Amino acid sequence: MDTYDVAVVGCGPVGLTLARLLAMKGLRVAAIDPNRLVCHHPRATHLDDETMRLLQTLGAQDMEHRFLRQTAWTLHREDGRAFLQQMLPEEESDQGWRTDYQFHQPDFESRLRGLLAADAGVDLWFGWTVSAIEQDDTAVRLTLLDRSTGAETTLTAGYAVGSDGANSFVRQAMNAEVEDLHGTQRSLIIDIHPFEHPAQLPADSGFILCQGKRPVTYLPIFPPMLRFEFMLLDEDDAAELERPQSVYELLSRWLEPGSYRIMRTDTYQWHARLVRGWRSGRLLLAGDAAHQMPPMLGQGMCSGLRDAANLAWKLAAVVKAESPSALLDTYESERAPHVRPYIEESARQSNLIEALGTGAVPEPNGTRTIETFRPLLGPGLVT
User: Fold this and answer.
1) Segment 278-317, tens digit of pLDDT
2) pTM score > 0.85 for this model?
3) Residue 193: which residues within 8 A CB-CB, separation 6 or more?
4) Which domain holds residue 59?
5) What are phi and psi of 173, to 5 degrees?
6) Contact (CB, 8 A) for 370 and 74
7) Cβ atoms within 10 A of the Cβ of 258, count?
8) Structural domain total, the chain
9) Which residues make Cβ contacts (< 8 Å) with residue 177, sequence separation at least 6?
């Protein structure tokens, strides 16, 4: 039986960041993830200046040259006229980095996995899934199953953090309540590798085109990769739209078939949800396990990384007996009020875009420019 200070269950960007921060504090960490290798297609695509500063803390700031510096974000009417725009500053923010970047998630995860592999205080349980969790006043016991061999083992940890995504096993074990903030839509996600960048599409800015019944989001990821997200209605047949012929038709406005490689076609359902109760004894939640939001603000992963930054030093202080365990209760009280405005605003924009596409609301007049907003932390260490 292996014993750790903290077991991190789920090692996407949030879990990897949390494990790295804990190890840097001198804790013994189990990093557990069902995937032996990094998923080869991107899921998240956006990070901000606060995220870059966190990468600097992790020792991975040199990846910035592999990130696309984003310059603008615009919402368009069906005829192409803009009605909402956000111009992103080219100068560095107070965090010492640009405010918005697009990135390729597999590279991001690969770098963080490598940093963990080189750390003697971390054991990588990649290819293992957690099948059972029990806790008492002194420890958490996790039963792990090797996905390739069927072998089973048990780990013990002082604490366990579920950063295991929207369908979190740890959250289910905690029986945590989930608040629905009403922003559920389906999107067909198409990632492509064009052989040449299409001249009619911007190379460093994204947009949403509120067209007909199927609004489309365009995002350059990192050259040459591009993403298109088509918002689907209830009656849309996702399986049919995921077929290559449908993809060629959907993208024909911008690209000729044969001018690109299709990397991914998946239908994803977005939700706007916030968990109540991020801690239950020695179990905690982070990232999508604690909150989910539509992609309109690009703050889903960024919010999860803020969770990791807030939680890591508090867990380290408690494990080292430098602070009482009550310190961990300030984690949710600070983070939940900060992430809620992002969820609510992304849900509002998502619902607006859907309504515009279906004609449920009239098109707005003129063009409005919006500024980036930064919610405040909730009461915690400082009230």
Assistant:
1) 999 999 999 999 999 999 899 999 999 999 999 999 999 9
2) yes
3) 224, 225, 260, 261, 263
4) 2-69+103-181+272-357
5) -65, -30
6) no
7) 8
8) 2
9) 275, 276, 277
> Do residues 168 and 133 lie in contact, with contact meaning Cβ atoms separated by under 8 Å?
no
| Amino acid type, 302 | C
Domain holding 250: CATH number? 3.30.9.10
Comparing CA positions, the residue from 194, 140, 204, 118 lying closest to residue 9 is 140
Dihedral angle, C-alpha 61, 63, 64, 67, nearest 10 °: -150
- CA 302 remoteness from chain centre: 6
- C-alpha 242/C-alpha 237 separation (Å) is 9
Rounded to whole angstroms, the Cα distance separating 207 from 74 reads 5
339 contacts 275 by C-beta, under 8 angstroms? no
Report if residue 373 sits inside a domain.
no
Residue 349's identity, in one-letter code, is: Q
- Quick check: is 74 in a domain? no
**9 and 141 inside one domain:** yes
Whether the predicted pLDDT of 104 surpasses 70: yes
Quick check: 189 pLDDT over 70? yes
Q: Which are the contacts of 94, defined by CB distance < 8 A and separation ≥ 6?
A: none
Q: Are residues 276 and 241 in the same domain?
A: no
177 and 213 share one domain: no
- Supply the CATH number for residue 312's domain: 3.50.50.60
Cα–Cα distance, 129 to 127 (Å, whole number): 7
Nearest to 350 by CA among 232, 238, 247, 254: 232
In this structure, the answer to whether residues 119 and 49 fall within a common structural domain is yes
Same domain as 345, residue 286: yes
Domain check: are 53 and 112 in the same one?
yes
Mean predicted lDDT score pLDDT of the chain: 94
Q: Are residues 172 and 231 in the same domain?
A: no
Domain identity same for 281 and 225 = no
User: Tens of pLDDT along 244-285?
Assistant: 999 999 999 999 999 999 999 999 999 999 999 999 999 999
How is residue 135 written in tokens? 């806790």
CA 46, chain centre distance (Å) = 9
